[in-house]
Amino acid sequence: MAVDPSGAELKAFFDAEPDAPVVMLNLLRFAEGGRELYQQYASAFRETITARYGVEVVYAGDGAPALVAEPGQQWDAVLLVRYPNRRAFSAMVADPEYQQISHLRSKALSEAVLQPTRPW
């Protein structure tokens, strides 16, 4: 199951509208013991990354039983994260301090969806 974006996916994301703001939908399924690791990641992310790149966690919450979903589509947690633009996201993932904490996210998750969105 996918947890981290691939190089090709990241390149396509960065090449499309690099100056447009983006809100990233994060759907997270935790590995066993992953919730605690993800909390460590989230704490370090807030302390080191958010102000540096103008990132705002708009919403973070636990998933509840789905009202409409196919089997296996229920998620443990949902986040909405606003980035001022795709360039900021690109700079963030290249930041050495982010790279030092990103392994916590990868180990915490068994599956994830990162869905960029645009305002209507």
Overview of the structural elements:
This protein is of the alpha+beta class and 120 residues long. The chain has a single domain, classed as 2-Layer Sandwich (Alpha-Beta Plaits). The protein has helices at 7-15, 34-48, 50-53, 86-94, 96-108; strands at residues 22-30, 56-62, 77-83, 109-117. A 4-stranded antiparallel beta sheet has the order 2-3-1-4. The longest helix has 15 residues, at 34-48. It is globular, with a radius of gyration of 14 Å. The N and C termini lie far apart (30 Å). The mean pLDDT is 91. It comes from Mangrovihabitans endophyticus. Residues 36-110 form the DUF1330 domain. This is DUF1330 domain-containing protein.
Characteristic key phrases:
alpha+beta, Alpha-Beta Plaits, 4-stranded antiparallel sheet, 5 helices, 27% strand, globular, DUF1330, DUF1330 domain-containing protein, Dimeric_a/b-barrel
What class do helices, strands and sheet pairing give?
Answer: alpha+beta
Euclidean distance between termini CA atoms: 30 Å
Domain count: the total is 1
Report the top-level CATH class: Alpha Beta
State the CATH topology.
Answer: Alpha-Beta Plaits
Organism: Mangrovihabitans endophyticus
Pfam families: DUF1330
InterPro entries: Dimeric_a/b-barrel, DUF1330
Protein name: DUF1330 domain-containing protein
